[in-house]
Amino acid sequence: MARRRQLETPSPEALKEIEAGIDRDLARAPAGLRPPIADVVADAARHASPLPQADREAAARDKADAERLRAAEGKGLVAVELPLEEITADALNRDRIVLDEDEMQELMASISASGLRLPIEVFEPLNPEDAGKYALVSGYRRLTAVRRLNAISGGERFQTIPAFIREPGSIANALVSMIEENEIRSGLSQYERGRAAASAVHDGIFQNVDDAVAVLFQHASRAKRSKIRSFALIHEELGDMLAYATGLNERQCLRLAAALRTGTAEVMRAALEAAGARSAAEEWDALLQFVEQAEGAPQDPARGGRPKTAQQVEKSRRTRLANGISIEREHGPNGYAIRFHGNNVTSDLVDAVMENVRHLLEQT
């Protein structure tokens, strides 16, 4: 009788070698000779799931939704709620100067009753210590309205505002976005267009007014860009003297710019200071005689047909105060100047500062 051989359990290493050999044999097998059981097992593995079909479909939709959400967030298309105190409205030199009070009251009533329908746009500046955590690109009226509502409620309501966080790539692109938004929603005045271009040159964003107008108003016609260059000249020469500049219509702006090219800036400044105008009409009356005189005088061909570029002005970094006001020092061909920025700046505040400066200078 033959002796039975006792079987031994293979070691883990031997089992791995056996499995590897089987895989190699299957890979070398001609088409059609693959064991049917292998296909059956593979198919079962692919379709095996501990979840019901409806749950698997819901999980697939959730995954697709999450991918779309991440893509939208990356493009700045998802609005987020931002605290009002984290947003700086004047980090960019605003193109709009005057807010119509009747329109503002209507906007506040709409937001109070139905909420803000369109989020504002902001970006994260490279100098948050001066410009704030978020700098406003577009939505100045909406932000102002929500801040007023917050103040009326004593700070209890409207503490945040929905916003799109953009990545404009440059300050120039942010200015373009701001101007386009205002042009579409509530047209800028002629003077505000020119002021936006001149201020961008003054802030060092562009080398000259021609470059600023070409970029900021790139979709405007050639004739309109030419007019905006004239409006920019008015701001360069008379901007600090005109209290009702936005009341000037297009024809008045063009006549005034033509007169300025004849060298009447200084006499116009003196006339405005002496007039103490209390309305746009009175301000225009103070300038009209010089405009008419210039229209009767021959044009100096040496002055050309375009406004001059802004003179070089050195500016210090803005210093942000606890009350939200920012101040900066300027030095240029016309001397030194101190500028105040912020929603809390009022004529009374500036008058008080001027009075303190006067006392200081009288004591030196």
Structure summarized in a few sentences:
The protein is of the alpha+beta class and 364 residues long. The protein has three domains: 72-170 and 177-182, Conserved hypothetical protein from pyrococcus furiosus pfu- 392566-001, ParB domain, CATH 3.90.1530.10; 189-310, Arc Repressor Mutant, subunit A (Orthogonal Bundle), CATH 1.10.10; 314-362, no CATH class.
What would you note in describing this structure?
The chain has three domains: 72-170 and 177-182, Alpha-Beta Complex (Conserved hypothetical protein from pyrococcus furiosus pfu- 392566-001, ParB domain); 189-310, Arc Repressor Mutant, subunit A (Orthogonal Bundle), CATH 1.10.10; 314-362, no CATH class. The protein has 14 helices and nine strands. The protein has helices at 12-28, 36-47, 53-74, 101-114, 128-131, 140-152, 171-185, 190-202, 209-216, 222-238, 250-260, 265-275, 280-296, 347-362; strands spanning 80-83, 87-88, 120-123, 134-138, 160-166, 314-315, 319-320, 326-332, 335-341. The strands form two sheets. A five-stranded mixed sheet has the order 1-5-3-4-2. Strands 6, 7, 8 and 9 form a four-stranded antiparallel sheet that branches. A hairpin with a 2-residue loop joins strand 8 and strand 9.
Keywords:
single chain, alpha+beta, Conserved hypothetical protein from pyrococcus furiosus pfu- 392566-001, ParB domain, four-stranded antiparallel beta sheet, 9 strands
